[in-house]
Amino acid sequence: MATFIFNRLAQTIVVVLAAAMVSFALFRYVGDPVNNMVGQSATLAEREAMRQALGLGDPIVFQFLRFIRTALSGDLGISYRFGVPVKGLLLERLPATLELSVLAMVVASSLGIPLGVWTALHRRSIASQLLLIASLVGVALPTFLIGIVLILIFSVWLGWLPSFGRGATIAIGSTWTTGLLTLSGLKSLVLPSLTLGLFQMTLILRLVRAEMLEVLRTDFIKFARARGLADHTVNFDHALRNTLVPVITIIGLQFGNIFAFSIIVETVFQWPGLGLLVIQSIHFADVPLLASYLVLIALLFALINLTVDLLYSVIDPRVRAGMASASTRGGP
Amino acid sequence: MTAPSAMREPDTPWWQSSLVYEFSRSPVAVLAAAVAVLLTVLALGADLIAPYDSYNPASANVVDARLPPGAVGLFGDRYLLGTDPQGRDMLSAMIYGLRTSLLVGFGVVLLAAVVGIVLGLVSGYFGGLVDTLIMRVADVQLSFPAILIALLIDGVMRTVMDRAMHDKLAVPVLVLAIAASYWVQYARTVRGLVLVERGKEYVLAAQVTGVSPARIIGMHILPNVMGSVLVIATINLALAILTEATLSFLGIGVPPTRPSLGTLVRIGNEFLFSGDWWISILPGIMLVALSLSVNLLGDWLRDALNPRLAGT
Questions:
Q1: Residue in chain B lying closest to A163 (CA)
Q2: Which of A139, A149, A282 sits opposite B159 (nearest CB)?
Q3: Quick one: which of A24, A227, B161, B245 has the most CB atoms within 10 Å?
């Protein structure tokens, strides 16, 4: 157990350090940091003074350490494009992305789990066959296209739902804004969260179905039926409960994926979150923003993976036993 | 002496192999293959088939901008699938876009497969520290979504290079960025297969007779892992095409001057509210047709090769 955690932690640290190095390299070598800070009219002597003041003449290792220290203290530099501290920008955009991602996951699970159970219980029905085919097609449908088709149908043709932005938001405390408390905010959330959740839904559906079919074949289900328990009790209390462990794990793991795909959805719906911010920062070569995002993403994924790995080992004793050997998860 | 191939029995021509027989009996596979072949032919023959040359600025007619499918332009040009906001023929732009998609897709598969196979062979055959190192990197890569890795690599490259240089190198950069996360699958699968093959008698026999490791890996083990590689490559092709389209849609893929299915959808997105749906939706349909047909083909191939692979 200890070795496993140590390995995982070491791996996490290496990943975050690597991201920090790329981020540092971007800061240091893309464009001239001095040029970014002094005016056009600065003399060579002034530039040199600035260079010394910034410590750009120091050994590169020291510079890197200093970079990490300032980043840890929350100073992520000034955005080239907006001219304000990056930290504030990221914090301001975070609520929009988190609300969208969490809601998408809620949509995906609350549709995917019941549909998965249903298709497993009614394996031969035409509706469940159609559902499976649809979920296969869903894999070939790129997220941005789903978003565009939804916009075309529900915004352009039917005019029911807004196609861009968050609608009216309400501030909670000093840093959080929410769109969940206004009608226009809620309406704005429908299409983006559906777009983001759809792919995850097909994933959950197929997983629940496969797990259910597996469990329904086992002896304890046969015994439960033989004991004369109601179908309902057997299907839901016995079978479904036993499929939920892998399902919850996948949902946790997919959160990272949702975060990545939110970049696409935010672009389609002009959703003012982190994803849209990073795409724009790439367009504008906003180095401090991009560099900070890089480290943030590395940290986030490291955290998600570490949590899921640890949870896995708590939930499943088999993992605990075989843990010394490499990774426990297969497939992307 | 060559190792027995997993694909077919020796001494029968390929068209009599059971793989071909099974293929002809699967309507889904035949249909998918037909669509994939048709689209590939379109892409390869773009210069001959496309009604207009999308790379030639003279073919764009601003007065004919955003015409619906089937419309006739001011100068009597017929546009089967309408025109885009610059008055370019949609059908031609889509055919040239298809070429870009397939170019990037095959580029990614080739690069990822070569890197992945080599690393997988080395990892599986030699084991030890090299193996640990390669597999650790693979683990880390797997923990990030492919689209995110591609997006960040492409984004960073874009920031590092100036625009003119990036426009020139856009396709190789894109291929590199996408392939960076797809090599892992090949490496893992090949490594697993090599671990099995390594203990078999034909490899031991080769080792005893003093054949060099490079020759054993290349001539004896490699042919036996190609079946699985082919399956991964097919499914990867569909994914790579979708990733390229997504990046181009986000505006960080191929430069706007080069037609790509993703770029076309992006352009059309701005005109969705004017009711000009065809600029986005038609290239989208072509994209889905391409990725779905390749995907189905990959699925079929996996099922068809699977029992045989398990048997050898």
A1: B273
A2: A282
A3: B245
For residue A137, give the chain B residue with the closest CA. B292
The whole model's pTM is what?
0.82
The mean predicted confidence, pLDDT, of chain B is 81
Q: Is the pLDDT of residue A317 over 80?
A: no
Pick from A145, A255, A271 the residue to mutate for testing the B interface (most B CBs within 10 Å): A145
Predicted local confidence at residue A315, as pLDDT: 62
**Which one of A155, A268, A287 has the shortest CB-CB distance to B159?**
A287
pLDDT of residue B309: 47
Q: What is the pLDDT of residues B264-296, one digit of tens each?
A: 888 888 877 777 788 888 888 899 999 889 988
* Minimum Cα–Cα distance from A266: chain B residue: B250
Residue type, A283: H
pLDDT in tens, A70-106: 777 777 777 777 778 888 888 888 888 989 999 999 9
| Cα–Cα nearest to A87, from A288, A259, A232, A235 | A288
Chain B residues inside the 8 Å CB shell of A15 = 140
ipTM over 0.85: no
| Closest C-alpha to B113, from B236, B227, B3, B294 | B236
Residue linked to tokens 């991964």:
B232
One-letter amino acid at A175 equals: T
Query: Is residue A116 within 8 Å of residue B261, measured between CB atoms?
Result: no
> How many CA atoms within 13 Å lie on the side-chain side of A91?
12
Q: At what angle do helices A287-315 and A86-121 cross, to 10 degrees?
A: 40
Over B24-47, what HEC string results? HCCHHHHHHHHHHHHHHHHHHCHH
**Shortest Cα distance from B168 to chain A (angstroms)?**
17
